[in-house]
Structure formats: C-alpha cells, structure tokens
Design brief:
The structure is a single chain. With about 350 residues, the protein is of the alpha/beta class. It has 12 helices and 12 strands. It folds into 2 domains: about 110 residues, Aspartate Aminotransferase, domain 1 (Alpha-Beta Complex), CATH 3.90.1150; about 220 residues, Type I PLP-dependent aspartate aminotransferase-like (Major domain) (Aspartate Aminotransferase, domain 2), CATH 3.40.640. Helices cover about 40% and strands about 15% of the residues. The strands form 3 sheets. The chain has a 7-stranded mixed beta sheet, with helices on both faces. Strands 9-12-11 form a 3-stranded antiparallel beta sheet, with helices on one face. Strands 1-10 form a two-stranded parallel ribbon. The radius of gyration is 21 Å and the shape is globular.
Length: about 350
C-alpha cells in the first residue's frame, strides 16, 4: 500500500504566519520590549488577588457562559447581555466572526496595512481577502473600501485606531461610509486601542452600533487593561450576530482566571484611567520628539507610533535593538514602536536620533 498524507484543506496552503513582537533577550543587551503594544504596568489593583484565587481551582472547568464577566460588561457599557460575546482576545472573537459570516466564495474587506491577523483568519475561513490600500497619510480609505463592496462581500473590518499606523477615522466619514454599506454586510469596528483615544472627533463604536444592526464592535483586555497574557476579549453586536458568536466560540475558551481578572480590571477604572493618561502623555512626548528630530510620523491615537521606513526598516530595527529596545519591523514598510516605560522611550528616541543623523 502506498503511503499518502492526510487530506488537508487547500485554503491553508501559503497562509501567512502571524509574527508576534520579539521579546527582549534574557541576559542580552535588549532591556525593553516595545514590539507588542503591551501595557508596561503590572496588573491593576485587586486583579492579582482574584487571579491567584482562581488559580486554586484549575482542576475545574471555567464558567462557559462567562456569566460574571458578561454581567459586568453589560453594566459597564449599558448593553443587554444578549448583545455580548466573549473570546480568547479580540482576535479570537474576530475569528469567530469569520466563522459566523464567511466561507468559500465570500469576500472580506479590510484596509492594508492593518492588523496582520485579518488576512490569516480570512484565509482560514476559506473566504477571499480584499485588501484596500491606506491613503498616503496611512489612514483608511473608506471611499475605496465602500467601492470594493460586491454581492459577495460578507464582512468589513475597520480598525480604529489602525494597527500598526495609529491613525483614525472620524465620525462624519465613518457614518458616511456606513450609509453606503448594504444592511446585510457586517461591519466590524475593531477598537482594541479605544481607551487611548483623545481625539473628540473619533466616535465610540458603541454609539454607532446602537442604531445600526449591521455594526459590531470588538474590544480587548489585552492593551489598556494589561491582561495580554490571559487572552480575553469581547464583542458587542445585535442579537443575531452576538448569538452566532456565542455558537462559534470554543467551549470553555476563556479561563476562569481570565474572567475573574477581567471583572476586577473593570472595577479598577480609576486606576486604569490614570495609567492610560500617563501612557498618553508619554505618547505625546515620543511623537513630538520624533517630529523634532525630523521624522514624518502620522498622528497616533493608539499606544504606539509608526515610522514608514521602506528599505531602511530592518536597519532601523537593528539599530534600536543594539541600543537596548526591540521594536516591531514590517519588512520593506516600516516600524511600529510601542509606548513603554519612560526609560524605554528615552532609549528609543536616542536610537532614532542617532539613526537619522547617519542618513
């Protein structure tokens, strides 16, 4: 009998690999990791205690319905529990959205460059990616995205603020865009960095969703709340979409430790706002420092900055690493740099200045 390999789905051939930000090397010259948009602060008050308590019950399955977390989210955001769904980070919920809406023959529209998971989860679902280039200012081209809609379009991602550029779309242009989208096409407002926004013209996606049944909002506890290692995110959507997300969720996917930590984080909002405010102040300092050095930096409303470097991307990333910080290069395009501790930001600014002086 001839040996053959098990038959696997052809859609997985050539699938792009998600590339996480590199960590700082243990015992090496790199002292700070600015490559993954993590919050540099430790867990919020009360979170560690809740996590430790939950750890004592690892022999038990978590609450599959995430009841405590769902109730806390409903109270915090003023939405019905039936409009909520949880998952393993917002990217996990995004994949559930693909499973619920799109398959072979369907199309998914997103800006590019944007969150690198979009093409991966789209290809896994068997659907076809329709990437739409950003404008020259590294902003979503919403008119072009609306023009790209066909009768095969099932899902549109709008990453606001956009990862990795930090740029935003404003209320008026977003509303105009949504008015052009057919009511049977789901538009997902991916707001992983919502807490860092200070531009009053950027709408809260939850305000948009309330009057538009084809809009869903993604949020995460990984960034501002500092729970990146626990993998918990959620979606807010109208009942048919939220119910489909709950159906496609991995059973027991969100651990009890993650659920309890997320609830405790929501209850520590005053401390959260203080920490986010400090990071926003550091963001302004880093942005202004780069502009003063002569860099062209798109205005950012996230917890990172973007430098479009083209062919110099790899050299710049190497120079930062040599100086003591690891950043996130996108080969041939640019570098995304997380806003971290003041000391880390100082090292990065010094490295950027030294690199520019050699150009």
């Amino acid at each position: 009998m001839s040996e053959t390999s098990p038959k696997l789905r052809a859609e997985l051939d050539g699938i792009p690999t998600y590339k996480p930000g590199r960590p700082a090397a243990a015992g090496g010259p790199v002292a700070f990791k600015l490559s993954s948009n993590e919050n540099p602060y430790p867990p919020l008050p009360g979170v560690m205690e809740k996590a430790v308590a939950a750890a004592g019950n690892f022999n038990r399955y978590p609450d599959m319905a995430c009841t405590g977390l769902m109730n806390e989210l409903a109270d915090r955001f003023g939405v019905p529990v039936s409009h909520l769904a949880t998952g393993t980070g917002s990217v996990g919920v995004a994949q559930q959205l693909l499973q619920a809406t799109s398959g072979p023959g369907d199309e998914v529209i997103y800006a590019w460059r944007s969150f690198e998971a979009y093409p991966i989860i789209t290809q896994i679902s068997g659907a076809t990616s329709v990437p739409v280039p950003l404008t020259s200012g590294d902003v979503h081209d919403l008119d072009a995205m609306a023009d790209a809609v066909t009768d095969r379009t099932r899902l549109i991602f709008v990453c606001n603020p956009n990862n990795p550029t930090g740029t935003v779309v404003h209320r008026e242009e977003l509303e105009r865009f949504l008015d052009r989208i057919p009511s049977d096409v789901l538009v997902v407002l991916d707001e992983a960095y919502r807490e860092f926004i200070r531009d009053a013209e950027v709408p809260d996606g939850l305000e948009i969703y309330r009057s538009r049944p084809n809009v869903a909002v993604l949020r995460t506890f990984s960034k501002a709340y500092g729970l990146a290692g626990l993998r918990v995110g959620f979606a807010v959507a109208h009942e048919p979409v939220a119910a489909a997300l709950r159906k496609t969720a991995v059973p027991f996917g969100v651990s009890q430790l993650a659920q309890d930590a997320a609830v405790a984080s929501l209850q520590a909002e005053d401390e959260l706002l203080g920490r986010v405010g400090a990071l926003v102040a550091e963001r302004a300092r880093v942005y202004e420092g780069l502009v003063k050095q002569g860099w062209t930096v798109p205005p950012t409303q996230a917890n990172f900055v973007w430098l479009r470097l083209g062919e110099r991307t790899a050299d710049f990333a190497a120079a930062c690493e040599e100086a003591g910080v690891v950043v996130r290069p996108f080969p041939g395009e640019g570098v995304r740099v997380t806003i971290g501790e003041s000391e880390a930001n100082d090292i990065f600014l010094h490295a950027a200045d030294a690199f520019r002086s050699r150009l």
